[in-house]
Amino acid sequence: MTTALVLGGGLAGVAAAQALGQNAVTTTLVDRADYHQFQPLLYQVATSQLPAEDIARPLRTIFAAEADVDVVVQDVVAASFADRSLTLADGRTLTADHLVVAAGGRPNFFGIPGAAEHTFPLYSVADAERLRRHHRALVTEAAGTQVEPGALDIVVVGGGPTGVEVSGALAELFTALRKAGKLPDEGRVHLVDRGHAVLGPFSERAQQYAHRKLTDDGVLLRLGTGVDAVHPDHVELSDGTHLPTRTVIWAGGETGPEIVQSAGATTGRGGRLDVRPDLSVEGFPGVWAVGDVANVPSGPGEGVPTLPQLGSVAQQSGRWAGENVARLTRGEATRPFHYKDKGIMAMIGRNAAVAEVGAHRHEVDGPLAFAAWLGVHAMLLSGVHSRTDAFLSWAWDYFDRDHAATVESHDTPRRIAWGDDSQDVPHIDLGAPRT
Ligand SMILES: Cc1cc2nc3c(=O)[nH]c(=O)nc-3n(C[C@H](O)[C@H](O)[C@H](O)COP(=O)(O)OP(=O)(O)OC[C@H]3O[C@@H](n4cnc5c(N)ncnc54)[C@H](O)[C@@H]3O)c2cc1C
Q1: Which positions fall inside the FAD/NAD(P)-binding domain (predicted)?
Q2: Res. 54 pLDDT band, cuts 50 70 90
Q3: CB-based contacts of 12: which residues, under 8 Å, 6+ apart?
Q4: Range of 360's domain?
Q5: Is residue 432, in this structure, part of any structural domain at all?
């Protein structure tokens, strides 16, 4: 009997455990949360478009039908690649024939003073829910009293896909709140980035589309400008400006999680684990790394570029590593990872998106790009939920209908009609430590 441990229940860890379980490998998946969290919809939670429960699915529900997969809900406090072991917060140590590391990433604050203490990262449903509650409290406060200038402003740091998507969604929320008479005129969204264009990895056309859309929606773009320090009530920018704000969202980059820094392997670019083409970790037989925690090569051979931190990379690499373990158990050779490139895309607002579809990067924007976004995300979601029809129906409504008159930050947002039982509700602990 072959055994495996999977560290992390994100898209990569779930896909790996599913592949292992389906190949009769006795698998234990460990995560500090009792639920999988679907990161691409985090900013919809942060901006009150979705309740947190709708994008968090209990891991035990996901694996209910997998007899060979057991779920352990514990913080992993140490890992040893040499022993293929995980030490849990409750004192137990688990070991197995294979260890699949799928521990995701964490924000990289680049040592900027105050950034770790005073910003809101957006990595988990707890992060998104904390941000939503913080903003709601500010809006409620502003409705009753005069607040200081800038108190309602939000500064988003980082103009990559996450920063652009969250800025677009916030601008929409601000417009909706203003129309409903719930937000005074002064609340603004500022997007700050050291680069000279938003959406760095995209084509110039997509960058210009996103720039135009954000500006039209009232987002103040501060490009070519860095953040030098973050304080509870303002940020210091590299051009000497002090921007008053009580809300700074960190979308400024990510690095490998703490747990892999002391597990025995030297980490590579971005504090992530370098892997061989078959996703195994050099020098540690039986250890694999997948998803955001890994520098996944885009093809065979030395020095090839690595793939970006994307949901489809996480899901496909997780599945591939699980299948490679299964190949070894059958006495076969492992196979180098082959990525089916779906392209890159970003949703800038309810009715605006950019997409570069497929490996050839066919450029589209507007409704077509939204349709591409929907297709790719429905596929990602299908790995953790059978009711993609419910997601599609919510998403078309989100895209189609002007929620401006109804969306209020303290109202219950429109839910995805998952039709779940009460036992399928996750336990979201806002005090839980971050990845
Ligand atoms: C806001 C946001 C929006 C995004 N939007 C998109 C998008 O639109 N499209 C797209 O393709 N990609 C998107 N991405 C990227 C995509 O979500 C990630 O690439 C993907 O989810 C990574 O999956 P993963 O399984 O590698 O890591 P994660 O999903 O981060 O999972 C890691 C898991 O490991 C667990 N873990 C870590 N350390 C420990 C420990 N010590 N003990 C116990 N458990 C631990 C964590 O709790 C977590 O559940 C987005 C990411 C973010 C943050």
Answers
A1: 5-318
A2: confident
A3: 102, 104, 290, 291, 292, 293, 314, 315, 317, 318
A4: 115-253+350-424
A5: no
Distance (Å, rounded) from C-alpha 423 to C-alpha 104? 26
Decide: 122 in ligand 1 pocket, CB within 6 A. Answer: yes
In this structure, the answer to whether residues 238 and 138 fall within a common structural domain is yes
Q: What is the domain count for the chain?
A: 2
Whether ligand 1 lies within 6 angstroms of the CB of 10 is answered as: yes
The length of the chain is 435
Write down the residue that tokens 């929620």 correspond to. Answer: 403
Mutate to test the pocket of ligand 1, among 34, 38, 39, 55 (most ligand atoms within 8 A of CB): 39
40 C-beta closer than 6 A to ligand 1? yes
Residue with the smallest CA separation from ligand 1 atom 5 is 40
Which is the closest atom of ligand 1 to the Cα of 309? 19
Q: What is the mean pLDDT of residues 218-241?
A: 97
pLDDT winner (highest mean) among 287-296, 337-346, 378-387 = 287-296
What is the tens place of the pLDDT at every residue in 406-417?
Answer: 555 556 677 787
Quick one: pLDDT at residue 433?
Answer: 44
For residue 188, the one-letter residue type is R
- Strand-pair partners of 192: 157, 222
- Tell me if 90 is assigned to some domain: yes
Q: Do 237 and 356 belong to one domain?
A: yes
Answer whether 365 contacts ligand 1 (Cβ < 6 A): no
Determine whether the shortest distance from the Cβ of 11 to ligand 1 is under 6 A: yes
